[in-house]
Predict the structure.
Amino acid sequence: MAFNSGHWTIDYSAKTVTNNDSGTGANLPHSGETYLGEVLDLFKWLAQEFASTSQMDDTYPMASDTPTVFKWLDTWGFGHADDFKYLTGGDITSADGQDAWFSVYMIGSPTAGTQMGLIQAGAEVTAWWDTDNVDILIKVKSGGTWIQSVDKTETLADAGIWLYTRKENDYYNHGYVSLLNGRQPIGLDTSIDKGNQTAGGTVAGWNDITITFGTVSKDLNNGGGSVNYDVVIDCAGRPMTQVYEYLKYITRWGETTLQINGDDGQVYRSANQGVYAEVKVAPFGTLAGTTYYGARGVWVENYLSPDFELIDATGTTQAPPKLRNVVASHSDLDGSVSTDGGCNVFVSEVTGDGGTIIKNKYTVSSATANTITADASIQANRTLQSGVIRVADTQYAYTGFSGSTFTGVTPDCSGLTNEDFYTPLMDRLADATQEVSDNLIYDDNPFWVITSVRRYGTKPYDVYTQFGETGVPFTPVLSNDPQAT
């Protein structure tokens, strides 16, 4: 990069210094660095020109305060509004102080080909600069007024600009710089985001994921109750890995069609801008392995699996409950491969290793046609979210529960009262080689259960095990009973 005086013209009558390509859009720095020069070199060229005998009767055009601070003199100035775009490495003010062009320069290590984006006074400045680290002049004062960036709830300094590096498939970065006092650096490191490598054209097709802003109260069913969030992301049944990549895609630099909370996607920063700490590398939250870590105020729903951790509007971390179940697997469970109609599979909590089934877990306090209310709060960490209620030898199905009441109970249970009952973790006639129960909320406290399989013609299978971190996966080994034929 070297200053080339052949691209500049001095007009002694108009007292202007003009770049020959200025205003044409030609030969800007991204078109070739030979057209870009430092302000210091412009000053040196002018100083040399005006030190010659022929220019002794012309007023001197520019003064230098430091190697990076310069000022037009008399009524000298740029001949065209875009002339400053061909300069780098310093600051210039007009002779009367009414206009100023100050510089910002990037330091750091962005990935190759990263295009810096610039926002000034709430609007994108069309890039004339090259990719990667840049050093440019920005007009920060016009007609005696500083060009101020006021951003939502934030009170920012005069002559402020926002710089963004949001290259697709990389971690993002951004920062605010006040140029009120002249030339300033900004470090905007970036790196490859290994969790965001799907082609943009593919990710764009995942637009069934929707984003809705507004305060909502949500309960993650983790014991924390209902708390507030600022934005709801409907994941459209997709895994969190795809949700993460889509959220990155709609906040990449260049996304100006989609509006996110009143901003172009390319400059979205947080659910409560200026108040919440920003996740610069990914504004809606990050990904580690397959686990999504939401930014503050982000709620997710309708996901494939709860592989995430959230932060509510108060800044409190909210982890989803561990959902675990019972899985019984064996070819002999399938009635289609036997002549006796399959197996009865039963799993239930017991008093301990080798203990008895807890059949009096609850007592019926009241019942309607399709509800049973217990005499105590239902233990979510011991109860399937939907399953079977046993009252003595009678089975009732239920579809949910809340507090002390089971709902969606069938068949009609009107009239039940003062009966002891419990909820097995599996209680069914198997009709498949694998039987899977609904989930319960596992609280990291294992408990003993008995796994039983019964079928005429085989010896009874009764094995004690613990419901733990993996739930209860078991494969019953059935052997023929020669006496039961």
